[in-house]
Amino acid sequence: MKRLATLALALALLVGTAWTEPYYVSVAATTTAATSYFPKPGATVLTCNDGTGIAYMRLFGEFSYPADATASSTAVPVGACIAFTKGSTEPGNWAAISLISASTSTVRVYVN
Fold this sequence. Notes:
Elements: H1 2-18, E1 23-29, E2 34-42, E3 44-49, E4 55-61, E5 74-76, E6 81-85, E7 94-101, E8 105-111
């Protein structure tokens, strides 16, 4: 009986956390670095570059101070998507993204 109760609790927690609805924001990456804050911080972020040029990005947690992305930041190639997951030992969730590009690119950012 104890095992059944533990299994039921684990399933309830899994359903409660795994099925949270993700949201996305569309951010323009231009030649000037800009930081955008997420409406709600999340543990997982997926960035997709829909533009015509490589976008460079930096992610920031809830407890860090955002800084500008540069050409040495993480590159998101044209037509590609890159996922990031916040580690369980790191405090807080992803809360902001800084983007820059050599040409104007639209970057979709999914947060969950």
